[in-house]
Specification:
Layout (H helix, E strand, L loop, with lengths): L1 E2 L5 E2 L8 H8 L9 H9 L3 H23 L4 H21 L1 H11 L6 H36 L2
Antiparallel strand pairs: 1-2
Helix pairs in contact: 2-3, 2-5, 3-4
Length: 151
């Protein structure tokens, strides 16, 4: 089960899109309704930033390929133009990452703000778990220290 827009477990199964649907999704298209929970997962999982950058790279592949193949001139000049385009595009992609992912989630049928709220909620859960792990580790170290002192 996955988290729904209200934060409660959703009865909808997590269905990954097929390769062609994913390519369409990466290029900015929408997915069928059966993939809506996967869209929320894709934009809120721990690796959501990396996933966003991969989608951006897929979007850049076509124009960069065309520049490298069709623009006349020496290859190093075309390569430098392509590199400049990649860097500029990635700068804007990172700058608008949150808004872009929110738009994807909204297009999948969730209310605006769902992705960020889900990421915040999951981050708080991870923080609580990390805190509990740190306290447990500190207690174990203290017990070991006390047992050594008692020798």
């Amino acid at each position: 089960m996955t988290a729904g827009s209200d934060g409660k477990p959703s009865p909808e199964p997590l269905r990954r899109p097929g390769p062609f649907h994913w390519l369409w999704y990466a290029l900015g298209g929408g997915l069928p309704a059966r993939n809506r929970t996967w869209v929320l997962y894709d934009t809120t999982t721990r690796t959501w930033v990396l996933r966003h950058l991969v989608r951006s790279a897929v979007q850049l592949a076509i124009p960069i390929g065309l520049v490298l193949l069709l623009v006349p001139g020496e290859f190093w000049i075309r390569g430098m133009a392509a590199l400049g385009g990649i860097l500029l595009a990635l700068f804007f992609s990172v700058a608008y990452m949150v808004e872009t992912t929110e738009n994807r989630v909204k297009r999948a049928g969730y209310p605006a703000g769902t992705a960020e709220a889900t990421r915040d909620r999951e981050s708080r859960k991870r923080d609580v778990l990390d805190s509990q792990r740190r306290r447990a580790a500190a207690a174990r170290r203290a017990d070991r220290y006390r047992s050594r002192q008692g020798r």
